[in-house]
Design goal:
The complex is a heterodimer.
Chain A: H1 3-23, H2 66-78, H3 82-86
Chain B: E1 4-8, H1 18-27, E2 37-41, E3 49-53, H2 62-66, E4 72-74, E5 80-82, H3 92-96, H4 132-138, H5 150-154, E6 160-164, H6 165-179, H7 188-193
Antiparallel strand pairs in B: 1-6, 2-3, 4-5
The chains are: A mainly alpha, B alpha+beta.
Chain lengths: 87, 211
């Protein structure tokens, strides 16, 4: 192999490599950031009915009694309806 | 039980700011921070309307979406809360919120912006329910005491309703049906509070009588 053909081969390989590198710029990768909902990173919260009643708590509540808590909330919800209280 | 929601009846709100005061007092909210406020449109003009605004505890909350540190969470009752230990006070949530609910204490010098503070639906935060830490960071946890938010329970005209979304929607629907008026007639005290069947909406005050 002559020196000239060796140089031509190297140059051809270099050209192919350069073309490959340049063509990567023509890719169709998305330019828009896709939003992904993050996950809460903080401390876990307890359920409102899952605590010892305080002196300020409504009467009839006990720890872990969800039904009693919901009943209390429902009663207080309806206390906002003065039509029901009056009729 | 459905999601917890607020509903303000603009026909009934008399701009007394009782809800604002109740919130301030209940949670010992610092100066410059208003978890709830009353907005009046056309103030001083006949037909003005007032509405009490705070965090609406959105089902698809924009504040949760934009928070870079993911400090928001939603409780089983649909209340949007946040962890102040994670909050970096960047203010993105304020820009995202359509109600201007997130508040930032400015207690320090050089425009220091503290950690975000907002309405908690009186549900505290991710600290032990009823603890001193919870009160200092988030205010009182009335929900864990079997109570509804102080603002709604204190509202003298019951313009502000708070609680189970389905229930307060029913209360409001019943109220509007009782008013019986349509369109522009739905205005004023008599319309807001309804009237007995077959009677005029409101008795006209006699001359010289106090209104």
């Amino acid at each position: 192999m002559s020196l000239r053909s060796a140089v031509q081969r190297v140059m051809a390989i270099a050209m192919v490599g350069a073309c490959a590198v340049v063509l990567t710029g023509c890719g169709e990768s998305s330019q828009v950031i896709r939003y992904q909902q993050g996950k809460y990173q903080g401390k876990t919260d307890s359920k409102p009915w899952d605590n010892e009643p305080s002196p300020f708590s409504a009467s009839g509540l006990t720890k872990g009694d969800r039904i009693a808590w919901e009943t209390q909330i429902k009663t207080r919800n309806q206390n906002q309806n003065e039509y029901q209280r009056a009729e | 039980m459905a999601r917890m929601k607020f509903l303000c009846d603009a026909e009934r709100c008399i701009e007394c700011n009782g809800c604002v005061t109740a919130c301030k007092q209940e949670h010992e909210v610092p100066w410059g921070v208003n978890r709830r406020r009353v907005v009046t449109i056309n103030d001083g003009v006949p037909g003005e309307r007032s509405i009490s605004v705070a965090c609406m505890h959105c089902s698809d909350a924009p504040c949760m979406a934009v928070c870079p540190v993911d400090c928001f969470y939603r409780t089983e009752q649909g209340v949007v809360l946040h962890d102040k230990d994670l909050c970096i006070g960047c203010g993105y949530c304020f820009y995202a919120c359509p109600f201007g609910a997130p508040q930032f204490p400015q207690a320090g010098v050089f425009g220091l912006r503290g950690k975000m503070d907002k309405c908690t639906f009186c549900a505290g935060g991710p600290e032990k329910d009823g603890s001193a830490e919870e009160f200092v960071k988030y205010g009182r946890n009335r929900l864990s005491e079997g109570k509804l938010p102080a603002c709604a329970e204190m509202c003298s005209t019951k313009a502000l309703l708070g609680g189970d979304g389905d229930v307060i929607a029913d209360i409001y629907r019943h109220r509007v049906m009782k008013r019986g008026a349509k369109g522009a007639e739905v205005w004023g005290w008599g319309a807001a509070y309804g009237k007995p069947e077959g009677k005029p909406a409101a008795a006209q005050p006699t001359a010289g009588a106090k209104s």
